[in-house]
Amino acid sequence: MFPSFQGKTVIVTGGSKGIGKGISRVFAKHGANVAIVARHLSVAGECASELRDDGVEVYACKGDVTDQKSMESIAKAVYEKFGSIDIVCANAGIFPSVSLEQMTGEDWDHVMNTNAKGTFITVKACLPYLKQAEYGRIVITSSITGPVTGYAGWSHYAASKAAQLGFMRTAALECAEYNITINAVMPGNVLTEGLEGMGEDYLQAMAEAIPLKKLGTVEDIAYAVLFLASKEAGYITGQTIIVDGGQILPEE
After folding, report:
1. pLDDT of residue 61
2. 227: domain range?
3. CB–CB of 140/88 below 8 Å?
4. DSSP E strand stretches across 130-206
5. What pLDDT sits at residue 1?
6. Is residue 250 part of a domain?
7. Is 146 left (phi over 0), alpha (psi -120 to 50) or beta?
């Protein structure tokens, strides 16, 4: 059973939909103050209103993870509202599909700036406040695509997800002296809003390729994040947890 996160404040980038919404919901369920960061305030606000129905403090923030000043402003506002920033979930990410032959430099930069640089900017903006916490936790949403597997059309995405892990390992060394840990979850195929419109046959085919014969849920990822953010996980840093139902295991 997970401990209460009562009195802890968590920032979740990309926290209004998909895996990010699942992370926001699970932290709220366990008593944390949650700051949801999204590019559109209306979307963040809708998610925040939904979670507030559970009687927890939720703060909707409009922010751009590629913009240092934007994230610094959010970190300052969250700290002023709740009095601490204890946990940062660098979850914001994009995954447009384009073949290597058709990919432009602009396509590459757009994905790398959001996924890899956005992780760095988020962590840097929150670091001064994490250093003041009883213990700080940073959890990155990476992927099996890039660090472990490949997928046609996602070479830029794969590179960005591998880059996050390289950043994580060195950041873990620099953050350790402040009692801040930084780890990553690596999801496999997860049922999100983006997949639901693909049709039942497509989803079933995806599920059949997974040893557990089912797609992951956003909560499956969120509970791995929750564990890494807990006090009990305080001796784990610079590490990854693959949450994929065994997807990467078969040799064929």
Report:
1. 96
2. 9-190+218-242
3. no
4. 136-141, 180-187
5. 59
6. no
7. left
